[in-house]
Structure formats: C-alpha cells, structure tokens
Write a structure and sequence with these properties.
Rossmann fold, 7-stranded mixed β-sheet, 17 helices
Length: 345
C-alpha cells in the first residue's frame, strides 16, 4: 500500500504557486509594499528637507531606526533612492514625482492604486456581490486621482508619440488635410495630438473633464499643435458631439470601466457624431474569447470589479456585439488592444 510519502513523491509540485510567492515573478509582491511604506512615511520629502541618514529620518517621527535603515536600503536597491556611505539622496527624477510639494507628485495616485482591493476586502465583495469595493473610478470626483498619472505624460509628451504613431499605422488611418479627429476621455491627449503632429491640416477635438484637458492642452502646446486643437469639457456620456462631424473618434483605455448598456449608448452617440464612413477606434486590452490566455487583460478583471460598478474585461466578440447594436459595420480586431469599426449610412 502506498505511503503518504510515496504519494507525495508522485504528486505534481505547486511550481506555479511557489514561483508566484517566492520566485522571479514574486518580485513585485515584495517591492510594492516597500514602495507603499516609503510613500506613507514620506521618506523622499524628509530626505529632500536635509535628513540624509536613517537616524535623522527616523527621528522625525520617533520611528525605529533599524526599520527605517532597512526600508531606505531597499528603496536604494530599487533605484528609488541613491546612497553614499550612510547618506541618502533623491534621484533627479524623484524630485519631480515623489515630493508632495510638486505638481506632478505621484504618491497619492500610487497609494490609491496599490490599495485597489482595500486590504483584503475583494473576496468579501465578490461573495456578497457588492461593488465597487472602495472608490468608484467612473465617478467624476475620481478625475483628480488620475491627474498625476497623466501629468507625467503631459510633462514630456514626445516620449509617448511612437506608440500612437504605430497604432495609427496599424489602423491604416492616414493624417491628411481636413481630417477631423475626436479623442474621447483623452487624458493627456497624446493619441489625438500625435495625428496632429503628423500633418498640420489635422483638426483634433479633445474631450475630457476640465482637469484633464488642462494637461492635454499643455501637451498640445509642447508638441506645437495647439492651434489645431479644440477642447470639449464634460462628461463623455452627456457632452454634445454634434452630428456627422468627425472622420475618426477614439476611446482609449476607458471602455472597460463601464457596463454593456452604458457602452452601447455611448457608441450610438459616437455613431451620430461620425460622418458616414467614419472610423471608431477602441484602444484597450482585449481578452481572449475564453478569458484564460491573454494575461494582462484577464488580470484586469478582479481590479475592474473592485473599482467600478459595472466594468469588465471585454473580448473582441463582446465589443463586436455592442458595436453591432450601435449601428457600426466592418468591425475588426486590429490587434490585442485595438478594435476598428465603421459608421454605416
């Protein structure tokens, strides 16, 4: 009769779980709590204020010096601090993004981002069907939460142009004189602005909440295309887009926050806004049809459950069904992040 030990020797090992917990893929599981602790203790601000040693940083709050030293050393290994002898300094980039006094401070955004499941409440929310777990990312009051994330792009928009150039090429959308582009929920606006950069005759309407549009217009100025741009502030589901106005409308990294009924209504409004033959572009990670292969997209599922009342990971067939309902034709999956649809008559 096989013994328990014999059975253990023939049982498949939990390699996937062990690698997740202790292997190379576990590095973020270790690094992110370290980053969170550094932000909560505001170590960058303390060091910038002249407290350069672990002892000096710890003394401000009466914290444990040994714990502070270990934390600062870990942040140094992560390249979030620099160290010489026993003194710590900030990397040049950290002075822009990790000091609360700076307009592009990312700390508040990162802390909210890292606590999306509200410290273990995701399972209970799923059990009870109560969502979102915490803050509703679709609520207009959350716009301020995302501003620092997009401020990084607005500060140096040229860094992000190539990705959008590649998208427009894949979509076979050519910049030309008189091309009218609507960038909905535009964020820093770089997708639409990239088309304007490619041709002086392209006209772009950037739509988002006023806080975001301030960033997008600054990015337009830095890219030298501000004279080609118009701002349309407000709720994307309520603003007046007009009729037969645009050759291209784009929705970037926003559709997955919303439920199908909301999306169909939005798609219908954009159908009216497009000229006949106009193109709607959805730029967002697409799940595979079985929702078990495209890791980046599928892993967004629990996160979307936690941060929105109706968002989900959508596959191409999901979008095709919704776009069909809204009146679009020639709906195609251009890539794992791009869907293209044409306005019918």
């Amino acid at each position: 009769m096989p013994t328990q030990l014999d059975e253990a020797e023939t049982t498949p090992g939990p390699d996937v779980l062990m690698d997740l917990l202790f292997g190379s893929v576990a590095v973020p599981l270790v690094k992110l709590p370290i980053l969170r602790a550094g932000l909560e203790l505001e170590v960058w601000a303390k060091i910038a204020a002249g407290r350069r040693t672990a002892k000096e940083v710890a003394a401000i709050e009466g914290a444990d010096e040994g714990g502070v030293r270990r934390l600062l050393d870990a942040l140094t290994v992560m390249k979030l601090l620099e160290k010489e002898a026993d003194k710590y300094t900030l990397p040049a980039w950290a002075e822009y993004y990790l000091l609360p006094s700076k307009p592009a401070y990312l700390g508040t955004f990162v802390l909210e981002w890292l606590s999306w499941e509200r410290h273990g409440q995701l399972a209970d929310a799923i059990r009870k069907g109560k969502r979102p777990v915490g803050a509703d990312y679709t609520h207009h009051e959350m716009v301020d939460h995302f501003v620092p994330f997009y401020a990084v792009r607005a500060l140096a928009p040229q860094r992000y142009l190539e990705r959008h150039y590649a998208c427009w090429r894949a979509l076979q959308i050519e910049p030309r004189e008189g091309l009218r582009v609507l960038d909905v929920a535009c964020g820093a606006g770089i997708a639409g602005l990239s088309l304007a950069r490619l041709h002086p005759g392209v006209e772009v309407v950037l739509q988002d909440w006023p806080q975001m549009l301030g960033l997008a217009l600054e990015a337009a100025r830095k890219l030298g295309v501000d004279q080609q741009v118009t701002a349309l502030p407000g709720d994307m589901s309520l603003v007046d887009y007009g009729e037969d106005m645009f050759d291209v409308a784009r929705l970037g990294y926003v559709t997955y926050f919303y439920d199908p009924d909301y999306l169909v209504k939005l798609f219908r409004r954009l159908h009216r806004a497009l000229a006949v033959g106009g193109i709607l572009v959805i730029d967002a990670p697409l799940s595979d049809e079985g929702r078990c292969e495209r890791e980046e997209a599928v892993l967004d599922g629990p996160w979307l459950y936690a941060v929105s009342p109706g968002g989900d990971v959508y596959s191409f067939s999901d979008y095709k069904h919704l776009l069909d309902d809204a009146g679009f034709v020639s709906i195609t999956e251009v890539s794992e992040e791009l869907v293209k649809a044409i306005r019918s008559l």
